[in-house]
Design the sequence.
């Protein structure tokens, strides 16, 4: 087993910088998720661990060894790709055995490893079939099994669930999480899906434009996003943002058409910044109808209902106050009428405050 460390790592193609100054310490046995939008550099970072991309600057370490110049086959890693990449002419057993036989593993050991991996993944009854006879989920299990038999120091997953339907993604998400808990192998998992990141990772690393934005547990990143990008990217539905100004000696946050009192809990941030322009972040679950129980200090606002989306257990209400639109969560039995004026309760202690110029969280 081994951890993975990025030390000031950069990847450039000529004048184009893909990743710059990446520092990240992935602990032994940790499940680390790299998450971000397309083109942020997360897959490139993964491919540098695997040795599939040359490193322009800095160092990548697996365990105590710098692997910049080490061939992929000698890095003790196993990678699962977005495409299953199974050999169509081979049976599932032969697919699982292939990498072991290339390494001249004794046949008895090959049989043992394949049997063990097949039992872990529940594919023992599929070993004599060809890939075309399997469903998408079964093929993905085989791809994972091919990595397991290697017993590597590090598992690398590059968006492995993207080709599966929504229900199967949820199932495979749980299976991969349980597998990592059972095997206790260091795992680096790349996805653009923040739900996957939140539900699977011990920690998540949020990337944008080749730079690391924040690293932390899912709850840390959700509750204390370091900047506007992280706050907007993590969470479904996304966080509401309103441009405002701190007024009244730091006791009031004034938007264009409404104002909110600053709760005592946050005044140490606002009092020294009286008159400053800020962006206020409010998650939809912290804007509720008056019938719902609330936590801490609250304030009431009124807004015009533009859209109501029933989801069964709740209704998402898109409501406007002047030019500002807020998404709130209300009781499904109290769904408001379109164009009606509704009272909404804001949980003030759950507000997030960001500097309008730097977009950094106030701290």
Sequence:
């Amino acid at each position: 087993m081994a951890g993975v460390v990025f030390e000031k790592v950069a990847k450039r193609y000529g004048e184009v910088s893909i990743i710059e100054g990446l520092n990240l310490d992935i602990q032994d046995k940790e499940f680390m998720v790299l998450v971000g939008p397309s083109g942020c550099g997360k897959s490139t970072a993964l491919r540098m661990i695997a040795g599939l991309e040359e490193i322009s600057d800095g160092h990548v370490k697996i365990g105590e060894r710098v692997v910049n110049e080490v061939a992929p086959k000698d890095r003790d890693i196993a990678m699962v790709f977005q495409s299953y990449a199974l050999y169509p002419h081979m049976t599932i057993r032969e697919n699982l055995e292939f990498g072991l036989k290339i390494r001249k593993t004794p046949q008895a050991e090959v049989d043992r490893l394949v049997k063990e991996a097949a039992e872990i993944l529940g594919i023992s009854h599929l070993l004599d079939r060809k890939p075309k006879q399997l469903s998408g989920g079964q093929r993905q299990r085989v791809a994972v099994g091919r990595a397991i038999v290697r017993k590597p120091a590090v598992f690398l997953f590059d968006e492995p669930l993207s080709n599966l339907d929504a229900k199967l993604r949820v199932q495979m998400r749980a299976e991969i999480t349980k597998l990592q808990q059972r095997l206790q192998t260091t795992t680096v998992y790349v996805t653009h899906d923040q739900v996957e990141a939140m539900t699977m990772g011990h920690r998540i690393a949020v990337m944008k434009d080749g730079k690391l934005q924040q690293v932390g547990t899912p709850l840390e990143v959700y509750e204390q996003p370091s900047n506007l990008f992280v706050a907007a990217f993590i969470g479904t539905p996304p966080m509401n943002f309103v441009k405002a100004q701190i007024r009244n000696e730091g006791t009031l946050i004034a938007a264009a058409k409404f104002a909110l009192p600053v709760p005592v809990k946050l005044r140490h941030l606002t009092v020294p910044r009286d008159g400053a322009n800020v962006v206020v972040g409010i998650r939809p679950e912290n804007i509720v109808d008056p019938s719902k129980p609330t936590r801490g200090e609250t304030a009431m606002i009124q807004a015009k209902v533009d859209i109501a989306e029933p989801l069964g257990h709740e209704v998402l209400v898109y409501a406007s106050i002047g030019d500002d639109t807020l998404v709130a969560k209300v009781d499904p039995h109290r769904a408001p009428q379109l164009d009606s004026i509704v009272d909404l309760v804001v949980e003030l202690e759950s507000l997030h405050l960001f500097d309008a110029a730097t977009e950094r969280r106030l701290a």
